[in-house]
């Protein structure tokens, strides 16, 4: 079940991944008002209340794993909400085969794009998926016009396997061979795992 990561912090050089909690929802909601992000993520704008419900379902669903991406240069130190740059998700989309994971990355803060944040966050999530969730095949579905994202996944050894003209999206896939697994773990061997409860600062906010 995806509650597996509720006390997990993964700290990389550029980004730190933390569980998605109620504290992150207002900022996330603000991002998702952007028409560009709605288009790139193929999502509808939600009310703040709906976003809170969504966060709770993400936390409790057995087929989703999500982390909020924080800027390592800012957190710990600054408040999480002001250190947020995006999110990274893993969905177990195939009920018959729990080793297939669909990965999504969003760097929502425009000033943080093109700086390698997305790449590191994606690698960290993939390594987590391989080590903790037993994922052996990754898929990414990306809007055709999102060239930066397609290009990044290809650099991470994903291959284009399908194009849907109806959804105007490209599906990329990576089968994690022993060699790929080795590469992935090498790319992320600097990542430290911590307890979220120990690292987070008491913000005087009770977590739901």
Automatic annotation (TrEMBL):
It holds the Pfam family Acetyltransf_3. It is an enzyme of class 2 (transferase). Its EC number is 2.3.1.308. Keywords: Acyltransferase, Transferase. SUPFAM superfamilies: Acyl-CoA N-acyltransferases (Nat). InterPro entries: Acyl_CoA_acyltransferase (IPR016181), GNAT_dom (IPR000182), NAT9-like (IPR039135). It comes from the Eukaryota. One of its GO terms (molecular function) is tubulin N-terminal-methionine acetyltransferase activity. Belongs to the acetyltransferase family. GNAT subfamily. This is Alpha/beta-tubulin-N-acetyltransferase 9. It comes from Rhadina sibilatrix. The gene is Nat9.
């Amino acid at each position: 079940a995806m509650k597996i990561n509720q006390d997990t912090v993964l700290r990389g050089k550029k980004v730190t991944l933390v569980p998605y909690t109620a504290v992150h929802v207002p900022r996330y909601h603000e991002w998702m008002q952007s028409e560009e992000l709605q288009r790139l993520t193929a999502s509808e704008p939600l009310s703040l209340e709906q976003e809170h419900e969504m966060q709770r379902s993400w936390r409790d669903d057995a087929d989703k794993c999500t982390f909020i991406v924080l800027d390592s240069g800012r957190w710990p130190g600054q408040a999480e909400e002001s250190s947020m740059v995006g999110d990274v998700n893993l969905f177990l989309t195939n009920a018959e085969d729990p080793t297939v994971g669909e990965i999504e990355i969003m760097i929502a803060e425009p000033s943080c794009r093109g700086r390698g944040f997305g790449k590191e966050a994606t690698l960290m999530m993939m390594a987590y998926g391989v080590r903790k969730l037993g994922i052996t095949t990754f898929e990414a579905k990306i809007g055709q016009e999102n060239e930066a994202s397609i290009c990044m996944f290809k650099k991470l050894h994903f291959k284009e396997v399908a194009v849907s003209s109806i959804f105007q999206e490209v599906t990329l896939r990576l089968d994690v061979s022993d060699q790929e697994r080795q590469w992935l773990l090498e790319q992320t061997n600097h990542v430290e795992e911590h307890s979220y409860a120990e690292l987070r600062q008491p913000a005087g906010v009770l977590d739901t």
